[in-house]
Amino acid sequence: MFAPQGPTFRELAVQALSSVERGYDLLAPTFDHTPFRTPDAILTPVSRALQGMGPFNSGLDLCCGTGAGTDVLRQVCRERVTGVDLSAGMLAQARAHERPAAGAPHTAWVRADARALPFGPVFDLVVSFGAFGHFLPGERPGLFAQVHSVLRPGGRFVFPIGAPARPGSPGYWALLAFDTAMRVRNALWRPRFVMYYRTFRLADVRTELARAGFDVQLHALPELGRRPDGSPRCRLVVATLPSRQRSAVATGHLAEHAPGPTEAP
Fold this sequence. Notes:
Layout (H helix, E strand, L loop, with lengths): L8 H8 L3 H8 L12 H14 L2 E7 L5 H9 E9 L2 H10 L8 E6 L11 E5 L12 H11 E12 L7 H19 L13 H10 L3 E6 L13 E7 L14 E2 L9
Protein name: Class I SAM-dependent methyltransferase
Enzyme class: transferase
GO biological process, one term: methylation
């Protein structure tokens, strides 16, 4: 599960008993050698899909970690990209891994809480990979409002979301066990470490994005395969800020553009 260069069991235990910020500061030097980093198998098809939607001028990688998603932005943005994260340790690793190339967009790294972004409406594209489990369901409306506030009219908020594990499958029980253990840990220990895999439900997320003022579409990522019922294993959520702002009622229409049958998360 972990590469030899990854963290030891003791290091993971110390991280798990820390706050989210401190935990990722500790994990940062070995993070890219863990399964927690978004794999290239997901990043590549997302990049390909974004190239079909762009080009974009400026992009923001929300909760950028060590910069894997920021590399995707460099492929589709012409002027500048920004990575924002709460962990100074993760940002330090992102800076260390950066390899400036001629003609590449300018890259900036900013330490900030995603729930209080220090930007105006200056981005054409916001992406995020694997970070939403760090936000409790009650925090999502505020998070989506923050993303809304930093996008220009017509800008897009894009992220992949995997199909839920089938009830009774090994993946289902593994995620349930992890979330249960995390809830017990947070009930008994402070500071809390918020990371839940089963709270980011597609149906809820679509509704909350629409309420935040986005037009929401889903696109299948065919490179990641299909489930036995024909539905995609992974979809790309594309939430667009209308060029002319409309009311939440007017933006409540949601379109499903992923081929094949849909499933309830």
